[in-house]
């Protein structure tokens, strides 16, 4: 399991795991909730390097305005009007259900 600090990223091969609460500065989450699967997505190291100095709203605006999403999961997450623990848990369950072949 990968443990992340609130503003930390971990490089996995050519992708970077990003804590999505960084894109929504509306709610402070405890570490356990911030690390949940529903709150994480992968972006390329290149994109992470390009956007590292933007505020959360700027990062979200970049993806929404350019339509340059790096995963379907990221696109779904960024189109939520708010991002709280409720949305994180719901999104995590939805993504797990999509990944599990029944």
TrEMBL record:
> Pfam families, from UniProt?
GmrSD_C (PF07510)
Which parts of the sequence belong to the GmrSD restriction endonucleases C-terminal domain? 32-97
Could you tell me which InterPro entries the record lists for this protein?
Answer: GmrSD_C (IPR011089)
Q: What is this protein called?
A: GmrSD restriction endonucleases C-terminal domain-containing protein
Origin organism is: Flavobacterium nitrogenifigens
Q: What is the lineage of its organism?
A: Bacteria, Pseudomonadati, Bacteroidota, Flavobacteriia, Flavobacteriales
């Amino acid at each position: 399991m990968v443990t992340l600090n609130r503003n930390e990223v971990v490089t996995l091969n050519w992708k970077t795991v990003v804590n999505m609460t960084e894109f929504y500065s509306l709610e402070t989450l405890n570490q356990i909730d911030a690390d949940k699967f529903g709150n994480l997505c992968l972006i390329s190291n290149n994109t992470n390097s390009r956007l590292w100095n933007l505020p959360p709203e700027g990062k979200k605006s970049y993806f929404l305005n350019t339509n340059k999403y790096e995963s379907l999961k990221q696109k779904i997450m960024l189109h939520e009007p708010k991002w709280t623990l409720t949305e994180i848990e719901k999104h995590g369950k939805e993504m797990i259900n999509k990944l599990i072949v029944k």
